[in-house]
């Protein structure tokens, strides 16, 4: 089998090209096959990722593990945060040591191993092998009196599950940070129009993977069993790995070219601790201060360009940091929103098929439940519908009227919609707790677990999911646009890594806030519920998030306004933007 293609590099006039480098300009079937393989791999990987994230709270809150509600939400936030926070690690390894092709292949292999370990925890023998035995602590209703208080048990199998989730997060983040640019490499010789079309189809493949995962895998996990659902995830990752290896001969690959991360860290150290840096420089012999990516024989940015790039980074970073509270709100969609939905009344899909139900389920009048994770489809559908409408109708209209907002203004609008989403969630939680306080609960069977829900339909959660989807259009997408367009060309990859990293910081801060409020006396400390949240005050948690988002939005408006005034002034002429470098 022939090896991967090499990119066409410009050469001096009169220098002959080797035959291998002419191959990318041969028939179009090569780039079509390469691009199609990348899109299919991305779709399968996203299906696997959402298959883990969509129902993770339900899995940990189930009778197999008996994690408390806040413990399961915290684990989901850690997983989501790590999957973004670790993105620069995979990108740096690819830039410095592995190259993108090898980094993606190794990441998919790690993905396959970690998803297999997660599936092993879904059946009794696997849990006993990796986690040991568990003391039986069945779910129960809220305690009617204060005399039944007991401490929250230590989460069963926590070390194993956290290790597996972090391995999955590392693999997913490495694929995310490398597959996008690797796919763009396959069509780079065909012009900007081909690149733009590739990114449109790449975004489409992400959402198709999410839809398939939420429709099929979420239903199987909730209504059949998690072992089958996680086995399908292993199959998706294995198929993605096979397709990527099989398509290798059609790929354009690039060797590691080095990274500017080391230069930025060195300049940051020089500015923060100049005396310590001078002592360190005087003590080390020449050449030893160079990290592996700086020893590359290929030409890189000059020291003057490094300084200019660092100055741009210092200007952009405060704006990106003020987005962190938005990400705290955004990731509630796959954690506390899910936990709230499990305690609302979920309708049956097939309520009148007694032949397909056990005697216990027939006695409770319960059939297949609509998967709570299906409400995440509201977010996906909003993106699939509104992104083309905004791109083809709304933006051109506003541009003709000279009313098109800048990327920074759109990000402020996205923060407003995120604030509105969490306010709506808080109001709904207040109404749910009002029913609970009057002892109006509904016992519902979800899989093998019993939840004591308020007699409010889960469809009341739809507005908060729609609002968080709209906020993503105005905050996340313009945020990527801002980070890419304002960065110097030589730092665009690093800036994407920083953007995803700060997204992960927001999720981890949300997890830390949940942990803090779960301490004795906190709003989320309700050990007497043993898996339910009917004695918690999650409404106050939502309103606290709204307050944090509102405060940082005001700070963001001040920082963004100052940035735009400076950019429009004469000083902006000397700023090294993306075309400089």
From TrEMBL:
Record's bilayer topology term: Multi-pass membrane protein
Leader peptide range in chain numbering: none
Gene Ontology, cellular component aspect: endosome membrane; lysosomal membrane
Region annotation (Disordered) ranges: 278-302
Pfam families noted in UniProt: PTR2 (PF00854)
Compartments, as annotated in UniProt: Endosome membrane; Lysosome membrane
Keyword annotations: Endosome, Glycoprotein, Immunity, Innate immunity, Lysosome, Membrane, Peptide transport, Protein transport, Symport, Transmembrane, Transmembrane helix, Transport
InterPro entries (alphabetical): MFS_trans_sf, POT_fam
Listed GO biological process terms: innate immune response; peptide transport; protein transport
First-listed, main subcellular location of the protein, grouped into a coarse class: membrane
UniProt xrefs under Gene3D superfamilies: MFS general substrate transporter like domains (1.20.1250.20)
GO molecular function annotation: symporter activity
Transmembrane segments: 30-52, 72-94, 103-123, 200-220, 226-247, 312-330, 373-390, 411-428, 496-520, 540-559
Family: Belongs to the major facilitator superfamily. Proton-dependent oligopeptide transporter (POT/PTR) (TC 2.A.17) family.
Function: Proton-coupled amino-acid transporter that transports free histidine and certain di- and tripeptides, and is involved in innate immune response. Also able to transport carnosine. Involved in the detection of microbial pathogens by toll-like receptors (TLRs) and NOD-like receptors (NLRs), probably by mediating transport of bacterial peptidoglycans across the endolysosomal membrane: catalyzes the transport of certain bacterial peptidoglycans, such as muramyl dipeptide (MDP), the NOD2 ligand.
Annotated protein name in UniProt: Solute carrier family 15 member 3
Organism of origin: Tursiops truncatus (Atlantic bottle-nosed dolphin)
């Amino acid at each position: 089998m022939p090896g991967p293609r090499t990119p066409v590099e410009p050469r001096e006039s009169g220098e002959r090209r080797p035959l291998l480098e002419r191959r990318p300009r041969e028939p179009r079937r090569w780039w079509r096959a390469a691009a199609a393989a990348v899109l299919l791999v991305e779709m399968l990987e996203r299906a696997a990722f959402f298959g883990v994230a969509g129902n993770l709270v339900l899995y940990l809150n189930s009778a197999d593990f008996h994690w408390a509600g806040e413990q399961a939400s915290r684990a989901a936030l850690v997983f989501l945060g790590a999957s973004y926070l670790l993105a620069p690690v995979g990108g740096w390894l690819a830039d410095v040591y592995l190259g993108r092709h090898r980094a993606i292949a190794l990441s998919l292999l790690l993905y396959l191993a970690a998803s297999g370990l997660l599936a092993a925890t879904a059946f009794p023998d696997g849990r006993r092998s990796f986690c040991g035995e568990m003391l039986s602590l069945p779910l129960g209703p809220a305690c009617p009196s204060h005399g039944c208080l007991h401490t929250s048990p230590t989460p069963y199998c926590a070390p194993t599950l956290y290790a597996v989730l972090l391995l999955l997060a590392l693999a997913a983040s490495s694929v995310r940070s490398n597959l996008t640019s690797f796919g763009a490499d396959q069509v780079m010789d065909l012009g900007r129009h081909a690149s733009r079309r590739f990114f449109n189809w790449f975004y489409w493949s992400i959402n198709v993977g999410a839809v398939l995962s939420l429709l099929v895998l979420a239903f199987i996990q909730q209504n059949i069993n998690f072992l089958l659902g996680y086995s399908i995830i292993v199959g998706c990752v294995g198929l993605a790995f096979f397709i990527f290896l099989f398509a290798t001969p059609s790929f354009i690959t690039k060797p590691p070219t080095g990274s500017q991360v080391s230069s930025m860290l060195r300049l940051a150290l020089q500015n923060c601790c100049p005396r310590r840096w001078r002592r360190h420089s005087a003590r080390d012999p020449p050449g030893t201060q160079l990290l592996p990516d700086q020893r590359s024989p290929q030409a890189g940015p000059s020291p003057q360009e490094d300084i200019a790039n660092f100055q741009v980074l210092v200007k952009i970073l405060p704006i990106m940091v003020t987005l962190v509270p938005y990400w705290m709100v955004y990731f509630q969609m796959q954690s506390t929103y899910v936990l709230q939905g499990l305690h609302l009344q979920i309708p049956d899909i097939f309520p009148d098929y007694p032949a397909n139900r056990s005697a216990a389920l027939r006695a409770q009048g319960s059939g297949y439940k609509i998967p709570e994770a299906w409400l995440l489809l509201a977010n996906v559908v909003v993106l699939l519908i509104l992104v083309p409408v905004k791109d083809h109708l709304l933006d051109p209209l506003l541009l003709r009227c000279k009313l098109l907002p800048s990327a920074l203004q759109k990000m402020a609008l996205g923060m407003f919609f995120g604030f509105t989403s969490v306010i709506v969630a808080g109001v709904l939680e207040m109404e749910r707790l009002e029913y609970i306080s009057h002892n109006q609960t509904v016992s519902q069977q979800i899989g093998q677990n019993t939840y004591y829900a308020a007699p409010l339909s889960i469809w009341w959660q739809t507005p908060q999911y729609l609002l968080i989807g709209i906020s993503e259009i105005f905050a996340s997408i313009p945020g990527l646009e801002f980070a890419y367009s304002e960065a110097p060309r030589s730092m665009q990859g690093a800036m994407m890594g920083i953007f995803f990293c700060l997204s992960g910081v927001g999720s981890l801060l949300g997890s830390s806030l949940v942990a803090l409020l779960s301490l004795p006396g906190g709003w989320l400390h309700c050990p007497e519920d043993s898996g339910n949240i009917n004695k918690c005050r999650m409404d106050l948690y939502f309103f606290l998030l709204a307050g944090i988002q509102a405060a940082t939005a005001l700070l963001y408006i001040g920082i963004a306004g100052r940035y735009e005034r400076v950019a429009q002034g004469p000083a902006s002429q000397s700023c090294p933007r993306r075309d400089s470098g």
